[in-house]
Amino acid sequence: MNVTTTRGTLLAAFACVLVGASFTANSVLGEYPYAGGQFLRYGLACLLLLPLAGKGSTARLRALTPRQWVRLILLAAVGMVGFNLTVIAAERTAEPAVPGVFVGCAPVVVAVLVPLLDGRGPRRAVLYGALLVAVGACAVQGWGRTDGAGLAFSVCALAGEVGFAVLAVPVLRPLGPRLLSATVCAVAALESAAVGVLVDGAGWLRRPDTAEAAALLWQGVVVTVVGFVCWYMGMQRIGAERATLFSGLIPVAAAGTAPLVGTGSYGLAQAAGSALVGLGVALGSGALNLTSARRRIGGRARRAAPMATFRGNDRPEWQGARAPEMPE
User: Fold this and answer.
1) How far apart are CA 29 and CA 100, in angstroms?
2) Residue 19 contacts residue 256 (beta carbons within 8 Å)
3) How far is Cα 231 from Cα 240, in angstroms, rounded to an integer?
4) CB 99 within 8 A of CB 87
5) pLDDT (average), residues 41-50
């Protein structure tokens, strides 16, 4: 791995661990109006992200095409507001593990879908790694009781998780991670307000108590501001296919932190699933291939040759040539 790839993997992994560790905060908000909580979370995140967006932010937003704006609206609606809504709806008739298992399959879908949209075939190592990650995530979470509605909403949650990565690919380069995060948070806040008024009426927003306020602050500041920026910075460096592999760390982090707050246990199944997720991430990210190559060449020096790095949608750029600037 080169420096760019290493940084990308660390950023994507860190973002997914933050999301997994945030499940405790979600449980505190069970009685708070959903749409109002999302409005506060994304609105706060947008206010914090705007000063970090960098110079020329207004010009970059004005340069977006109508098609790109539609993509941003869909990204917020499908990958953020819609994703959370479908998970809540699925858990009304299904145990939480059911939507978790479906969401754990996102790396496989992204590993196939992104290359097809880009006019190329799936990368074999990434696809095999994604399959291992999906199996590991399922082992960590297990399976629970459900009905047809629970399954349907779980499939919608999977679509939301896939959309959060795939829909961002064409707008990540012109906006950069910080401005992209700020923009989709602003759009998601407006969408949440609209959903709240339509569904909950005048009661869509209320003053949170101390525990709810702390949970909303955690979600807005840590999970959204830090997590989103790290996620998109990682995706910018290693591509959507490889970045989505790290979503398998979400259930692993959730399972690892659950015993600390007395909401679950960590047993043999969770340990085995975590190992499979780690193996899948290592295989799909190229770490295993790199280790094998080093063993084959032993101590022999390699011939000097240009080396491919990846940015954005897994498209190679050759070291030594001038790489196009990308906002961060």
Assistant:
1) 19
2) no
3) 10
4) yes
5) 95
Whether the predicted pLDDT of 39 surpasses 90: yes
Do residues 79 and 164 make contact, with C-beta atoms less than 8 angstroms apart? yes
Secondary structure (3-state) at 97 = helix
Comparing CA positions, the residue from 166, 164, 163, 168 lying closest to residue 180 is 168
C-alpha distances in Å from residue 168, one per residue of 31, 78, 163, 208, 301: 32, 11, 8, 32, 40
Helix (H) or strand (E) holding 317: strand 315-318
The answer to whether 103 and 254 have CB atoms below 8 angstroms apart is no
Collapsed DSSP state (helix, strand, coil) of residue 96: coil
3-state secondary structure of 260: helix
**Alpha-carbon span 270 to 272, nearest angstrom:** 6
Contact 187, 76 (CB under 8 A): yes
**223-250 pLDDT tens trace:** 999 999 999 999 999 888 888 888 888 7
Bridge partners (DSSP) listed for residue 308? 318
Give dist(CA 112, CA 241) in Å, integer: 8
Give CA torsion, residues 193, 15, 253, 242, to 10 deg: 110
288 and 274 Cβ atoms separated by less than 8 Å? no
Alpha carbon 85 to its chain's center: 16
Which of 228, 222, 280 lies closest to 251, judged by CA? 280
What predicted TM-score, i.e. pTM, was given to this entire model? 0.79
Q: Are 312 and 173 spatial neighbours (Cβ–Cβ below 8 Å)?
A: yes
Tokens 């059911």 belong to which residue? 98
Kindly report, residue by residue over 61-84, the tens digit of the pLDDT: 999 999 999 999 999 999 999 988
Residue 252, number of CB atoms within 10 A of its CB? 27
Query: Measuring CA to CA, how many Å separate 166 from each of 15, 70, 260, 276?
Result: 17, 14, 34, 24
Q: What's the pLDDT at 320?
A: 37
Nearest-angstrom CA–CA distance, 9 and 64: 28
pLDDT at residue 46 tops 80: yes
